[in-house]
Specification:
It is a single chain. This protein is of the alpha+beta class. The chain has one domain (2-42, 52-112): Alpha-Beta Plaits (2-Layer Sandwich), CATH 3.30.70.120. The chain has helices at 13-23, 71-82, and strands at residues 2-8, 29-35, 57-66, 91-96. It is elongated and about 50 Å long.
Length: 113
Amino acid sequence: MKELEIVIKPEKMENLKRILDREGARGVMINTIFGYGRQKGAGQVYTREETPGINLLPKLSVRTVVRDDIVEKIISRVFEELNTNSFGDGKIFIKNIEDAVKIRTGERGEEAL
Protein backbone atom coordinates (compact mmCIF):
# COMPACT_ATOMS: atom_id res chain seq x y z
CA MET A 1 0.00 0.00 0.00
CA LYS A 2 1.07 3.56 -0.66
CA GLU A 3 -0.06 6.90 0.69
CA LEU A 4 -0.29 9.59 -1.94
CA GLU A 5 -0.23 13.17 -0.77
CA ILE A 6 -1.28 15.30 -3.72
CA VAL A 7 -0.83 19.06 -3.30
CA ILE A 8 -2.95 21.00 -5.79
CA LYS A 9 -4.60 24.33 -6.47
CA PRO A 10 -8.06 24.44 -4.83
CA GLU A 11 -9.83 24.85 -8.17
CA LYS A 12 -8.52 21.44 -9.30
CA MET A 13 -10.23 19.48 -6.49
CA GLU A 14 -13.25 18.24 -8.47
CA ASN A 15 -10.98 17.00 -11.27
CA LEU A 16 -8.79 15.17 -8.75
CA LYS A 17 -11.81 13.56 -7.04
CA ARG A 18 -12.98 12.25 -10.43
CA ILE A 19 -9.52 10.79 -11.14
CA LEU A 20 -9.28 9.10 -7.74
CA ASP A 21 -12.81 7.66 -7.99
CA ARG A 22 -12.22 6.41 -11.53
CA GLU A 23 -8.91 4.73 -10.62
CA GLY A 24 -10.24 2.97 -7.51
CA ALA A 25 -9.14 5.07 -4.53
CA ARG A 26 -11.61 4.38 -1.75
CA GLY A 27 -11.29 7.52 0.34
CA VAL A 28 -9.55 10.85 0.71
CA MET A 29 -8.54 13.24 3.47
CA ILE A 30 -8.34 16.91 2.53
CA ASN A 31 -6.62 19.79 4.32
CA THR A 32 -6.42 23.42 3.31
CA ILE A 33 -2.81 24.51 3.48
CA PHE A 34 -0.73 27.57 2.62
CA GLY A 35 2.76 27.44 1.23
CA TYR A 36 5.20 28.12 -1.55
CA GLY A 37 7.72 26.29 -3.68
CA ARG A 38 10.77 27.36 -5.65
CA GLN A 39 9.05 30.49 -6.91
CA LYS A 40 8.43 31.60 -3.29
CA GLY A 41 4.79 32.21 -4.19
CA ALA A 42 5.70 34.96 -6.65
CA GLY A 43 4.13 35.47 -10.08
CA GLN A 44 5.88 34.65 -13.31
CA VAL A 45 6.44 38.22 -14.55
CA TYR A 46 8.13 41.11 -12.75
CA THR A 47 8.63 44.77 -13.56
CA ARG A 48 11.64 46.69 -12.29
CA GLU A 49 9.57 48.32 -9.58
CA GLU A 50 8.33 45.04 -8.13
CA THR A 51 10.17 43.51 -5.26
CA PRO A 52 9.58 39.80 -5.21
CA GLY A 53 8.69 38.59 -1.74
CA ILE A 54 7.43 35.37 -0.26
CA ASN A 55 3.69 34.87 -0.65
CA LEU A 56 1.95 31.96 1.01
CA LEU A 57 -0.47 30.59 -1.54
CA PRO A 58 -3.61 28.58 -0.75
CA LYS A 59 -3.37 24.90 -1.72
CA LEU A 60 -5.14 21.68 -0.90
CA SER A 61 -3.35 18.65 0.48
CA VAL A 62 -5.27 15.56 -0.59
CA ARG A 63 -4.18 12.29 1.01
CA THR A 64 -5.27 8.82 0.07
CA VAL A 65 -3.96 5.31 0.73
CA VAL A 66 -4.22 2.98 -2.24
CA ARG A 67 -3.13 -0.45 -3.45
CA ASP A 68 0.33 -0.56 -5.02
CA ASP A 69 -1.05 -1.59 -8.41
CA ILE A 70 -3.00 1.66 -8.98
CA VAL A 71 -0.36 4.18 -7.88
CA GLU A 72 1.18 4.74 -11.33
CA LYS A 73 -2.25 4.99 -12.99
CA ILE A 74 -3.25 7.74 -10.56
CA ILE A 75 0.03 9.62 -11.05
CA SER A 76 -0.31 9.43 -14.86
CA ARG A 77 -3.91 10.65 -14.79
CA VAL A 78 -3.09 13.52 -12.42
CA PHE A 79 -0.23 14.60 -14.68
CA GLU A 80 -2.36 14.34 -17.84
CA GLU A 81 -5.43 16.10 -16.47
CA LEU A 82 -4.15 18.63 -13.90
CA ASN A 83 -0.91 19.79 -15.51
CA THR A 84 -1.20 23.35 -16.84
CA ASN A 85 2.56 23.70 -17.36
CA SER A 86 2.48 26.68 -14.98
CA PHE A 87 4.17 27.38 -11.69
CA GLY A 88 2.17 26.06 -8.75
CA ASP A 89 0.56 23.04 -10.43
CA GLY A 90 1.48 21.03 -7.33
CA LYS A 91 3.34 17.93 -6.25
CA ILE A 92 2.69 14.28 -5.45
CA PHE A 93 4.47 12.66 -2.51
CA ILE A 94 4.49 8.87 -2.29
CA LYS A 95 5.00 7.03 1.01
CA ASN A 96 5.05 3.34 1.88
CA ILE A 97 2.33 2.20 4.27
CA GLU A 98 3.23 -0.78 6.39
CA ASP A 99 -0.28 -1.72 7.51
CA ALA A 100 -3.80 -0.38 8.05
CA VAL A 101 -6.51 -1.45 10.50
CA LYS A 102 -10.20 -0.70 10.08
CA ILE A 103 -11.38 0.18 13.56
CA ARG A 104 -15.00 -0.90 13.03
CA THR A 105 -14.23 -4.44 11.78
CA GLY A 106 -10.60 -5.12 12.64
CA GLU A 107 -9.77 -5.83 8.97
CA ARG A 108 -6.13 -5.30 8.12
CA GLY A 109 -4.05 -4.40 5.08
CA GLU A 110 -5.77 -3.71 1.77
CA GLU A 111 -9.05 -5.08 3.11
CA ALA A 112 -9.08 -2.17 5.59
CA LEU A 113 -9.04 0.37 2.77
